Amino acid sequence: MKPADAPKDGAGMAAETERMIERDGAKEPESAASGGETRKEMRVVLLTGFGGLNKLRVAKKAMPEPQEGEVKIRVKACGLNFLDLMVRQGNIDNPPKTPLVPGFECSGIVEAMGENTQGFEIGDRVMAFVNYSAWAEVVCTPLDFVYKIPDDMTFIEAAAFSMNFVAAYMMLFEVAALREGMSVLVHSAGGGVGQAVAQLCSTVSNVTVFGTASPFKHEAIKDSVTHLFDRNIDYVPEVKKISPEGVDIVLDCLCGENTGKGLGLLKPLGTYILYGSSNMVTGETKSFFSFAKSWWQVEKVNPIKLYEENKVMAGFSLLNLLFKQGGCKPVRSAVEKLFSLYNQKKIKPLVDSLWALEEVKEAMQRIHDRGNIGKLILDVEKPPTPLMANDSTETSEAGEDEEEHEGDSDNKERMPFIQ
Ligand SMILES: NC(=O)c1ccc[n+]([C@@H]2O[C@H](COP(=O)([O-])OP(=O)(O)OC[C@H]3O[C@@H](n4cnc5c(N)ncnc54)[C@H](OP(=O)(O)O)[C@@H]3O)[C@@H](O)[C@H]2O)c1
């Protein structure tokens, strides 16, 4: 893979990110006609405000054109992450203004390029990170965030790859320095990141993986995880029964009381990494009670204790690294190593299910209901499966008023295509 242009520095990247949000996210959707010229339209998923599923709809929006340094991608598939659920609820730090088009990753074909986009050509098959706005038929994003994909990689796989495998890789190999013979504890082991962690651990000899997951997933993922525990039980005594000295690496995406438990399970020189706060999601909308409970339960760590116990405590956020801290270079290096592992057939994204844009509510409900094993994908070219009951997800004009129905979880009558 040819390297793309050198990454911009941190300050430049933050300004660029803000412009992207301004242009694609915070503004009211544009009308098809501007200045007497008819602009092409595209379908997008629109989040009209923070809250429940009723805040999501498919809408028409003017198609973006690439600016200098940007690549225009005809999107084939987008990744749906747990973070998108948290964004929908407004359960994140400094949420951008709504209406916005959600989504942080996609795959597709380069359709056009702005000035100074050396290294890319029209027709290239790519995957990309986007600072919001990925859930659309067309995306424009700076080339720093675009990667040509291997010939054998499908668009569905590419959309399932970027966020999960890059986050898993950087945590395991760059933050925690995973090596032969180590042990790793990972929560949500059947999910997108969890399965990427399990696969990457299997590329290093003699690594023991302890995982927690809902019991119905255990049969499907038992070969990828050495010791699996029901997520409803206290995993600490179970891990200690098998490994009394504890584990080398704890990957915690749950937060709350798991921070203290994770730190307690570390062997000397072990690394605990916090990379999510799934515990803050309870109902369909943001719960201040869950937020406060999670915050209250987090172990307030004294560095002197870490020093005395020889423990490492870390945090990891891929999107902040990319979009706020100018970390494109280490991310590109991780992507190249991951593509090499993919080409050697050592890793392969596990896809749970494919959904049309119009089915985004059902897809989100599935991840909320803990139903996914692997990654959920929005397949842009997939026609929606006909509904059996009331369809409230039809295409609508962007930004139109709608009634509030908090707690209104849509019907789940569609049968998704499960891979
Ligand atoms: N920091 C980063 O750079 C980064 C990057 C990607 C993802 N993440 C984080 O990693 C975690 C996993 O993300 P993902 O996109 O791969 O999602 P995922 O694991 O596929 O998410 C769904 C699974 O999470 C588990 N879960 C835990 N708490 C839950 C809750 N309160 N409600 C519903 N499900 C819950 C469920 O599995 P079980 O029932 O089997 O436990 C569920 O099936 C999230 O916390 C996400 O924010 C962080």
TrEMBL record:
Pfam families reported for this sequence: ADH_N, ADH_zinc_N_2
Coiled coil: none
InterPro entries with a match to the protein in the record: ADH-like_N, ER, GroES-like_sf, NAD(P)-bd_dom_sf, Quin_OxRdtase/zeta-crystal_CS, SV-ATPase_mito-regulator
GO molecular function: oxidoreductase activity; zinc ion binding
Basic and acidic residues composition-biased segments: 16-30, 408-419
Protein keywords: Oxidoreductase
Region feature Disordered, mapped onto this chain: 1-38, 382-419
Compositionally skewed regions (Acidic residues) per UniProt: 397-407
Stretches assigned to the Enoyl reductase (ER) domain: 51-378
PANTHER family associated with the record: SYNAPTIC VESICLE MEMBRANE PROTEIN VAT-1 HOMOLOG-LIKE
Family: Belongs to the zinc-containing alcohol dehydrogenase family. Quinone oxidoreductase subfamily.
The protein, known as: Enoyl reductase (ER) domain-containing protein
Organism annotation: Denticeps clupeoides (denticle herring)
Gene name in the database record: VAT1L
